[in-house]
Amino acid sequence: MRKLTPYDYNGLELYHISPKNHDGVIFYPRVPESRMKTEDDETPRICFAPTLEGAYKAVYPNPKHFDLDLFFLHVPDNMDDIRAFNSIVVPSIREVPDVLDTDELWCLDPVVMKCIGVIMFFTVYRPDTYDHWNTKAIDVTDIMEDHYGTFERGDSLCIPEGGFPDDLMDKLRDRAFRAMKYNTQL
User: Fold this and answer.
1) What is the helix (H) or strand (E) element at residue 169, kind and residue range?
2) What DSSP string describes 117-133?
3) Cβ density class 99-121: b for 16+ within 10 Å, e for less
């Protein structure tokens, strides 16, 4: 692993996605329970990615055809401290075998999480071969808040038993198809 240089922090965004809202929660470095079998099992860390797609690939490396996945989007609320203590490292391929796909970054110091919204990922496939083509991230905070109201710390986006209501799914699918048609994303 290598530490970031002060220059590397210029314009750096750190994203962490979760089905739970961790707004205001302090994350302490730990060895993740859900990691690849060949991934480092000794270094306590908090995993981030510099892109939304990288964060998604780190959680779900094999997206499904037109699966709509909803997550709370978090960023560090104490980025100035992280920068001052030079807390971010880039793991090696030996430590994280898929680091070239995810661009995973580790924070080795505590992080105060700030929830900045709800995002939905969906995957587009090539129509002729059904090969994975692109995973897109789109903001659906407004749709989810219209349906559920304001989200609080600890709320979950896990699919309820019986699934989301049809009207909500129609709105989410419509947003995904419009984003695909006009090639827009976050």
Assistant:
1) helix 166-181
2) EEEEEEEEE-TTT--EE
3) beebbbbbbbbebbbbbebbbbb
* Residues 168, 145 contacting (CB under 8 angstroms): no
Q: Which residue, among 22, 31, 186, 42, has the nearest Cα to 114 in the 3D structure?
A: 22
| Total-model pTM | 0.82
At 153, list the tokens. Answer: 């710390």
Number of H-type helices and E-type strands within the chain: 5, 9
Give SS3 for 107.
strand
What is the Cα Rg of the chain in Å? 17
pLDDT digits (tens, 9 = 90+) for 145-175: 888 888 887 787 766 666 678 888 888 888 8
**pLDDT tens, 71-103?**
899 999 999 999 989 999 999 999 999 898 889
